[in-house]
């Protein structure tokens, strides 16, 4: 059986998806990166190997996410694309007439505007933590509430409290203040969800032509409180795709499948890369005033890739 692998490595999660020739998802994984992307990819590959049939043949590999170039070196990728393209491709496949994609991950958020399946506008927020998954995780831990229950508690609220959501620090301070005033927990959490949605609309979505159908994806899409807050703010239904938490990896797998006819064979190194001895290193180039930070990838103490310089002097890819 021919199959295609997509890998999305981000700061918080590492996602892997395998599809067949008919775009059916054969396996998908969502695992924590934990600051160790190489180990996360290797662990994911070993886990995938155990879930797939032994006769599976990976005919194409795509990578995306902030760690896409590193991952491409580790696994042997055939195509490398940024998150905007990967998410747009995956969402258009599952929701063909989608016009707006809201994606909120662990450390950043983005909005993608499409017209006739083509990306016509986008924006990303990588500055403020307010509204991201890591901020919600932090608040859930502070309140001693499992993050899986955060959204369910929010939708029980009848009178959400208004929380200042323009900044993560201010939002947390305002939540503490509202707790001290005696407001119900569900009203505070619902208020936080609405504040984070306002933050997103006023910053990431500022000036964007947000039109339905609207898809909501990324790890935060699991929070029904955030989804309801988006529906309240935008005045329309917000759709959550089936594979909402691995859409980047799904898009990379679809791109690998769609471009498979343009190459004689795949660069895929095999699931055994999970057993290889990889490590990363680097140095600062002093040959000019740019002081470029050069990244090096080693396999068994041999340099197999190097990048990061503006002039390309050090590049090995």
Write up this protein.
By secondary structure, this protein is an alpha/beta fold. The protein has three domains: 2-87 and 248-275, ATPase, nucleotide binding domain (Nucleotidyltransferase, domain 5); 97-240, ATPase, nucleotide binding domain (Nucleotidyltransferase, domain 5); 277-317, no CATH class. The protein has helices at 37-51, 68-75, 83-94, 133-142, 147-154, 168-181, 185-203, 224-234, 247-258, and strands spanning 2-9, 13-20, 25-32, 57-64, 79-80, 100-104, 109-115, 118-125, 214-217, 238-239, 278-284, 293-299, 302-307. The strands form three sheets. It has a five-stranded mixed sheet with strand order 3-2-1-4-5. A five-stranded mixed sheet has the order 8-7-6-9-10. Strand 4 (57-64), helix 2 and strand 5 form a beta-alpha-beta unit. It starts with a strand and ends in a 10-residue tail after the last strand. The model has no long low-confidence stretch (mean pLDDT 90).
From the 3D structure, determine the CATH topology of the largest domain: Nucleotidyltransferase, domain 5
Number of domains: 3
Mean model confidence by pLDDT: 90
Helix content bin:
25-40%
CATH architecture of the largest domain: 2-Layer Sandwich
Report the top-level CATH class of the largest domain: Alpha Beta
Low-confidence stretches: none
What structural class is derived from the secondary structure elements? Answer: alpha/beta
Strand order of the largest sheet: 3-2-1-4-5
Q: Beta-strand percentage?
A: 25-35%
Beginning-to-end CA distance, first to last residue: 30 Å
| Number of strand elements | 13
| CATH homologous superfamily grouping of the largest domain | ATPase, nucleotide binding domain
Could you state the order of secondary-structure elements as H and E? EEEHEHEHEEEHHHHEHEHEEE
Q: Give the C-alpha Rg.
A: 21 Å
Query: Could you say which overall geometry the principal axes of the C-alpha atoms support?
Result: globular
SS summary, helix count: 9
Query: What kind of sheet is the major sheet?
Result: 5 strands, mixed
């Amino acid at each position: 059986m021919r199959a295609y692998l997509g890998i999305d490595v981000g700061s918080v999660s590492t996602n892997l998806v395998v599809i067949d020739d008919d775009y059916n998802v054969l396996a998908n994984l969502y695992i924590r990166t934990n600051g160790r992307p190489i180990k996360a990819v290797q662990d994911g590959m070993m886990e995938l190997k155990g879930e797939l049939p032994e006769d599976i043949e990976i005919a194409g590999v795509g990578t995306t996410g902030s760690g896409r170039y590193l991952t491409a070196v580790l696994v042997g990728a055939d195509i490398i694309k940024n998150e905007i393209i990967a998410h747009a491709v995956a969402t258009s496949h599952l929701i063909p007439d989608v016009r707006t994609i809201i994606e909120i991950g662990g450390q950043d958020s983005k909005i993608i505007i499409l017209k006739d399946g083509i990306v016509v506008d986008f924006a990303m927020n990588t500055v403020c933590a307010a509204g991201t998954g890591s901020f919600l995780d932090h608040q859930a831990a502070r309140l001693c509430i499992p993050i899986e229950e955060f959204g369910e508690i929010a939708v029980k609220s009848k009178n959400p409290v208004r929380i200042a959501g323009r900044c993560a620090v201010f939002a947390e301070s305002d939540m503490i203040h509202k707790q001290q005033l005696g407001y119900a927990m569900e009203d505070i959490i619902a208020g936080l969800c609405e504040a984070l949605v306002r933050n997103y609309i006023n910053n990431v979505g500022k000036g964007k032509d947000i039109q339905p159908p609207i898809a909501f994806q990324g790890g935060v899409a699991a929070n029904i409180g955030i989804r309801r807050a988006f529906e309240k703010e935008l005045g329309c239904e917000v759709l959550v795709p089936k594979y909402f938490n691995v859409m980047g990896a799904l898009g990379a797998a679809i791109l690998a499948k769609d471009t498979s006819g343009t190459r004689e064979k795949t660069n895929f190194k095999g699931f055994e890369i999970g057993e290889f001895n990889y490590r990363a290193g680097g140095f600062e180039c002093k040959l000019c005033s740019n002081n470029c930070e050069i990244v090096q990838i080693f396999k068994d103490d041999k340099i197999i890739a190097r990048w990061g310089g503006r002039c390309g002097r050090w590049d090995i890819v």
